[in-house]
C-alpha cells in the first residue's frame, strides 16, 4: 500500500495510525520535500511515535522535542536546529511523517 492510497485528512495526515510504516514515512517525507530522511529526523519521528503510543496519545510541543533530542544526542540542541530538520513547523510536519493525527495546537512553546 502506498501513501497516496491511504485514507488521509485534508492536510495529508493519516487517518489510521496503523497504516504507518517506515516506507510510508519515506513517501510522506518525499511529499514534504524532506526525503531521504536522515538519522536525526528519524530520532525525532521515533520520539514522537513513542510519546504518542506510550503516553496516552501525547504529542510533544517543540520545546519538549528540543529537550528530548538534547538529552538523546548529548548536546545542546535548539529550536533552530529542529526547524532545520523540519522547516514547516516541526511539531506538525514531523508528526505527519510519523503517521500521527493532526494536532490542533500551535506548536511552539
UniProtKB/TrEMBL annotation:
It comes from the Bacteria. Keywords: Cytoplasm. Gene3D superfamilies: 3.30.1420.10, DsrC-like protein, C-terminal domain. Its main location: cytoplasm. GO terms for biological process: tRNA wobble position uridine thiolation. GO terms for molecular function: sulfur carrier activity. It is found in: Cytoplasm. It holds the Pfam family DsrC. One of its GO terms (cellular component) is cytoplasm. Belongs to the DsrC/TusE family. This is tRNA 2-thiouridine synthesizing protein E. It comes from Varunaivibrio sulfuroxidans. The lineage of its organism: Bacteria, Pseudomonadati, Pseudomonadota, Alphaproteobacteria, Rhodospirillales.
